[in-house]
Design goal:
heterodimer, A: mainly alpha, 79% helix, B: Immunoglobulin-like, three-stranded antiparallel beta sheet, 6 strands, elongated, transmembrane helix (chain B)
């Protein structure tokens, strides 16, 4: 490993940060959430993101890692790439300017650095030449059930985070009847199951040994959906969408956001 | 960017490879950014970020334009919490004409920040009394 090869990895990280960050960089709600959301929640979100980045680095960083120290270093580097990319692009898009107070600028950049940081971490896999694929597959196998669940969580977080800031999530929840909600929930679970276990993706999870449909369904699909819902709840809470809202309405929002979240959980193995 | 960096010799090499200086630099910068952001956001959290909005409006410029007059103002939110949908209302009143009211809604004024806007009048605001103020806001 030389600085030269690391530089290539860094360049891919910047590419990933732009590619995965661009939808939210151009989302209006993200700019206002950056300064209006609770500071404590923003801090918690950044901490959570750093932890997820450490985990993602283990499975697929922009370089092969050998120790927790390296995973932490990679997570920090990806976060730094996310911050630089966010700040530069927000500046070009005139979403931050030097006339603003530093509090506003910091809030906007910090919030955008979450998707951009995750994108930086995924950049290598998506834009790279695909080296060390075997090693990655080996790690995913070694990590076992816990690793599977972590990847689902990361995938759910990324997709839920991409949708949750928009007003549409709430609007959809408001206009749905309970029957729509039930239908969307069933559709989410079905797709989650079909995506991961029935279609022949690369890196596809083979059903657990002796795994009947039912045990696979209980072990992975239902757990995956539960993770998707929990991640959705966390993201909605982070953005203050649940404050003062009745439980029934929160349930509706969860089902709505749980749909992209479960797709994210299902396809995480492909992206990571 | 040659492809012959076989995965085999990478793994067969020493288990503790040397960390390149660029990696230290990137990780170090990332750490500085992370700590910087945490510090600044944390500082806000303990310095009145939860004080509800208080918006004051200051008239910056009055000019004659085609079809009337334009009043530029600057609205400042002096508290820590952001205000959404801030309505700014301006009233021109004089002894010899009916009072004229103009309104505009500012989408957001972040905490301790200012936003600029303008109001249009048909009467000359300098001919009578001009009163510009914020009438209300919504929580974001």
């Amino acid at each position: 490993m030389t600085s030269g090869r690391y530089a290539i990895g860094l360049a891919r990280a910047f590419g990933g940060a732009i590619l995965f960050g661009i939808p939210l960089l151009m989302t209006m709600e993200m700019w206002s959430l950056g300064f209006s959301m609770g500071r404590g929640r923003l801090l918690l979100l950044l901490t959570f993101t750093l932890l997820v980045l450490v985990g993602l680095s283990y499975f697929s960083g922009f370089e092969k890692t050998f120790s927790l120290k390296e995973d932490v270093m990679d997570a920090l580097a990806a976060f730094g790439v996310g911050v630089i990319t966010s700040a530069a692009l927000l500046m070009v898009l005139a979403a931050i300017s030097l006339e603003m107070t530093w509090g506003e600028i910091v809030g906007r950049v910090a919030l955008q650095s979450v998707p951009a940081g995750i994108g930086a971490m995924l950049g290598r896999k998506q834009l790279g030449a695909g080296q060390d694929m075997d090693a990655e597959e080996e790690r995913k196998r070694e990590a076992g059930y816990g690793g599977e669940l972590f990847l689902m969580l990361a995938g759910a977080l990324f997709l839920a985070f991409n949708m949750a800031p928009t007003e549409e999530m709430i609007l959809i929840a408001f206009q749905m009847t309970p029957w729509h909600g039930l239908a969307l929930g069933v559709l989410s679970i079905t797709l989650l199951h079909v995506f991961v276990y029935s279609i022949g993706f690369s890196g596809q999870e083979s059903p657990p040994e002796g795994g009947s449909f039912l045990s696979t369904f209980l072990h992975f699909t239902l757990t995956g959906y539960a993770i998707a819902l929990l991640v959705s709840l966390y993201v909605l809470w982070t953005f203050g969408r649940t404050d003062g809202v009745s439980l029934a309405e929160i349930a509706n929002m969860l089902v709505v956001l749980g749909f992209p979240a479960s797709l994210g959980a299902a396809t995480a193995r492909l992206v990571v | 960017m040659k492809r012959e960096h076989g995965t085999g010799d990478m793994r067969a090499a020493k288990p503790k490879p040397q960390v390149p200086w660029l990696e230290w630099l990137a990780a170090g910068l990332g750490l500085i950014f992370a700590l910087g952001l945490f510090g600044m956001i944390g500082w806000q959290a303990f310095n009145g970020a939860t004080v509800p909005p208080a918006v004051t409006v200051e008239v910056e410029d009055i000019a004659r334009i085609d079809g009337g007059y334009r009043v530029l103002f600057r609205a400042r939110n002096g508290a820590g919490e952001a205000a959404a949908q801030v309505e700014i209302e301006g009233i021109v009143s004089g002894p010899e004409f009916k009072a004229e009211t103009s309104r505009v809604v500012l989408d957001y004024i972040p905490g301790r920040s200012t936003r600029r806007g303008g109001l249009f009048f048909t009467r000359d605001p300098r001919s009578g009394a001009l009163d510009v103020r914020a009438t209300g806001f919504a929580e974001p």
